[in-house]
Amino acid sequence: MSRISTFGRAVSQLATPSTSSSTCRSCQLRISAASQQRQLQTSAARPAFVDRFKSVLRGKKEEESTDVTTASATEALDPSDRQPEFPGWYLPKENIPEGWAKTPQDDSAYVVATEGKDLEHVGSEKWLELQFDDKPNYKGWSKVKKANGLSPKDAGARVIQAAKKAGLGEARLQQLEQEGLAFEVNDIQTKFKLTKNLRTATNMQIPDIIMHRATTLKDFQQAILSKPKPKKLSKDLLANSELMANPNLQVRGRRQTPIHKERAVGRWKVIEEELVNRGLPVFGHGIKADRGISRDDQAA
């Protein structure tokens, strides 16, 4: 309910006609209610009819101009760009993904398949994974072998061949022919080219620390040679005849445990039987014992 200010109430009281004392109570109430209703009736300000008519005309003109602009922009587009190249594919031709199957119109050598044995099976789980696989196709370097079966002669020949491809001058090439593997290499660029050529020829990775420390081609030869298998200590001891002549010395090809010693003197069978009867582990695994109860007691 709208509130009437103090000034408005004062004016309303002045505007209210005076009533004589002869007017009845009901008539006085009716007159005062009518005057209050006239004061409380308020309405929102409405624009003039001309202003409303102009706004309606202005809106219609803006809609017509927008329709004309859209129609002109649509006519400017080439309709051939929006024609689908394949059924169900409503995109420009240049936006079609790579690897899409070609049609007879695109490829003159197109041959329609008559058998399905060489065609791709569409709809399997593997096919779906390949279609929706968003992982990048990473293609790394070729695999590097840590060792190979090159002999020292073959390794030296490959090092010299790689040095010739490293772009040495004529004078340096003549010096290389004379010195061979003793040829000095101190230039860092020459070392890098030599290392790159060796990696391509031998499929082996040469560490940077070895490349920087190398001063001659002999060092590069040692870097690409395969390491020999480490010798066992037992074989070296067995090869020493003076050491093996000692009767107090025995050399075995594998590790010896207390079990081997007990078997050598024939006590292991007795020890194993007692351990099983008492329910104790023999080797630490696979324990099968009767916990001190004989088979006759179990049968009873």
Indicate the proportion of strand residues. under 5%
Strand/helix succession = HHHHHHHHHHHHHH
Q: Approximately how much helix is present in the residues?
A: 40-55%
Figure out the total of helices: 14
Main β-sheet description: none
- By CATH reckoning, the class of one domain would read Mainly Alpha
Shape: elongated
- How many DSSP E strands? 0
Alpha carbon gap, first and last residue:
106 Å
Write the layout of secondary structure elements.
Elements: H1 6-15, H2 25-40, H3 49-76, H4 125-131, H5 152-164, H6 170-179, H7 188-202, H8 208-213, H9 217-224, H10 233-239, H11 241-244, H12 258-265, H13 268-277, H14 295-299
Helix pairs in contact: 5-7, 5-9
Outline:
The chain is mainly α and 300 residues long. Helix content is 49%, strand content 0%. It has a domain at 152-224: Non-ribosomal Peptide Synthetase Peptidyl Carrier Protein, Chain A.
Provide an overview of this structure.
With 300 residues, the chain is mostly helical. It has a domain at 152-224: Non-ribosomal Peptide Synthetase Peptidyl Carrier Protein, Chain A (Orthogonal Bundle). 49% of the residues lie in helices and 0% in strands. It contains 14 helices and no strands. The chain has helices at residues 6-15, 25-40, 49-76, 125-131, 152-164, 170-179, 188-202, 208-213, 217-224, 233-239, 241-244, 258-265, 268-277, 295-299. It is elongated. It starts with 5 loop residues before the first helix and ends with a helix. The model is unreliable at 289-295 (pLDDT under 50).
Which features characterize this protein?
300 residues; elongated; mainly alpha
